[in-house]
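Can you give me the bound-state structure? Components:
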Amino acid sequence: MTATGSDTTTTTTGGARGRDEAAPVLEMRGITKTFPGVTALAGVDLAVRPREIHAVCGENGAGKSTLMKVLSGVHPHGSYDGEIEFRGEPVAFRDIAESERRGIVIIHQELALVPELSIAENIFLGNEQASRGIISWGATLRAAARLLRRVGLPDNPQTRVGELGVGKQQLVEIAKALSKEVALLILDEPTAALNDEDSRNLLQLILDLRDEGIACIAISHKLEEIRRIADSVTILRDGRSVETLRVRETPDAAPELSEDRIIRGMVGRDLGSRFPERRTYRGAGAGQVAFEVSGWTVRHPTEQRTVVDDVSLTVHRGEIVGIAGLMGAGRTELAMNVFGRSYGIYDGGTVAVNGNPVRTRTVPEAIAHGIAYVTEDRKTFGLNLIDTVHRNISLTSLPGMTRRGAVDEHEEQQVAERYRQSMNIKTPTVFEPVDRLSGGNQQKVVLSKWIHADPDVLILDEPTRGIDVGSKFEIYTVVERLAAEGKAVLFISSELPELLGMCDRIYAMSAGRLTGEVGRENATQELLMRYMTADAELKVPT
Amino acid sequence: MTTTQDRTPDAPAPDHLPEERSTGAILLDVLRNNVRQYGMLIALALIVLLFQIWTDGTLLLPNNVSNLVQQNSYILILAIGMMVVIIAGHIDLSVGSLVAFVGAIAAVMMVDYNLPWVVALVLSLAIGAVAGAWQGFWIAYVGIPSFIVTLAGMLLFRGATQIVLEGQSVAPFPGGFQQIAQGFIPEMGPYTQYHNPTLVLGLLAVVALVVQQVRDRRRQRAHELPVLPPALFGAKCAAMAAAVVVVTLTLASYHGVPVVLLILCGLVLVLGYVMRNAVIGRHIYALGGNKAAAKLSGVRDKRVTFLVFVNMGVLAALAGCVYAARLNAATPQAGLMFELEAIAAAFIGGASMRGGVGTVVGAVIGGLVLGVLNNGMSLVGIGTDVQQVIKGLVLLAAVGFDVWNKRRATTT
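Here's the bound-state model for the whole set.
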């Protein structure tokens, strides 16, 4: 096997790898897939060499997921045009079971684990270790323990999956894939929901598996991650494979491909700048504190521990203030507790809007005082997915659209139409259910909804999570415009470049406490990372 | 790729919409976007047509139409309330027992205590509200699943009925009370072969309908929203007016409008309007569609859920009075299985198990599908055993069609 250290540049003892120009393990040629009225894929080519981590990237809607569904048999043979060759022979999968038997396993972005079952039961779900229909628990647990060691998960295989964090669940998924004798592992946004440490572990595991001979296709929006682990990257744009680029010459070499080069391929042009230019607000009340939180403390809803500890912060009118932090630092917990006690148990602290102390014990109270919170999880907390674009936009502002107690539907539709145009929401009509929209466009709907509520203070929680580069820029532009109009914006994000590009000032949180505050001119990724990983007890002087 | 649409993504600017596209294309679009609603309406029309032929025209004879309305009124009232409950993401299994309980209380008030029937009716509705509030409290504020709370209520109110009635039937009721379910609005004016007030009501309905449609269209125009082209709009108004005229003439050539039909129309108009246009209606849809998102958008989820059950309680009480008035007796076995009929009507009429979807009119259409099946099958002499089988299959087919249609629409 291979010796691997904490760093990807550690040398390995593989030997026979390197410039491996052997026949590809997977070759997809001219894949074309159409849905009624839409061509999702138009002649896509993809070749994955043995022992390779092959990234697939592209904007949302570029066809990445469809391509993987074709490969794994979700879209059965016959429903698409083109050829697939796997390990040298043509294949025609009718369903996922068939592709899994051949060793192609896909791990979806939304994990497919049953929370009420144990790790071992989940690993062998649908593949039970049984003889004559009776499950052998001994064999199940032994095999599960072996797989868990292989993915580096120390937990007991009898632990309920629901008790594990997302990072560990991801590892269980991989253990499940390994139990199926996987030859080609497909990962869809594997680190989207993971914190930095879990991401690092997962990426290292993918590298280890490659060294064991498992090829991997990784779909990712995180370009820096692609540079870190991938050997090649294929870029899709509008359902076509634009180009395949070598990220590094040998598996252990440093990456030679720049992020900007990948972005250029994805958007088909150079992005002049990834962030809009900031304008200063000079209107009424400029420079005044619009939003002030003092001594805010939150306890965990069920456990006896403090998740937000004595946090105080201010946001001025027209200012964009960031909150940096790793997952679990308490940023979302702070925002949601301030916003109508939507998470956890309030344990002290005050809020003032435009200098006046206000109560925010319920969501309607918070909204009434001009506070808006745009959630990090738009599908669970942000949108009524089965309802239309226009009704989602109007939901928070309905009382303002009523005449004699009745909602003015025409005004509602007109408002939605206005946002469709001004926010560039890509939808045929505002009467489309939002679950038909792409992630970026859904996020624009959530933003429209809160912008129309006309708050003084906007708390944005990971507003660009899981959306493509083009949409990100559009959302940055909207946020910048809001600040330029005099709104106070609190910008929570896990992406440091985004915070540095957008914010006037950035707070850092670690383990529930504020550990630092830096102005735009002094902020660097390194400094923020130091604050974010600071021992919360030793407050770093600001 | 979850964003596949089956329409062209580049819709023309709204104000050009009516002129640039052919009438047929717009009609198709309208139909495609409302498959579920029109689908059920077409199914209802087909069922009516089938039995109209099968019964040699008996089904739509004036006296049978009146009968059909009166026979199904209490299920329709329950179905309307049930639809709201299901949209909110809940279920109510107790309504059948509540029908019996309220009927029993009303009977005791009128027969044993000689209260005037109007007072008894008002008190009955109030008791329904209290019963609904009782269940709403456990569901909304304590957080017990509605299935459990109303299952408990089903047993509780059934038992309470037997206690109140001491296992006996209580009857008869004052004439005024009976009129709720059995009466017609009184005849007035000269003899015209038709029932005059019914004609007047029908005429008023047609005028109101057209005025409302025209105003709606004008307001849409004013907001620069797409509107139907004039020809199609005219056809739509004419079709709706014709339907009202046919029903009016049918009813007017018998005893006129049943009292209970007026009550039903009032309920459909008011609740339909509330669900569509009032803030609380929108909040009910939002809550059923995604509770977490609704809460974070400022919807007072507990209060809304509570009120949904109070509403259901009042409607169950109304249905209880109508049912007792129709039988002219309160019996311990009243309302048995009504909850299941109401739930079936709501699902046939377009509700979804997951909540957030459905319309009040849909509940009425669903209830009518079941009602016409009942009545038609009885007329042609099909036994109740076979009737049950067929109704079960219709429920399965309606929801199955819905599932199939949705899967076809979302090409993932």
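A couple of observations. Residues 1-19 of chain B have pLDDT under 50 and may be disordered. Chain B touches chain A at residues 1-11, 14, 33, 219-220, 222-225, 273, 276-279, 282-283, 285-286, 289-290, 292-300, 354, 356-357, 410-411 (CB under 8 Å).
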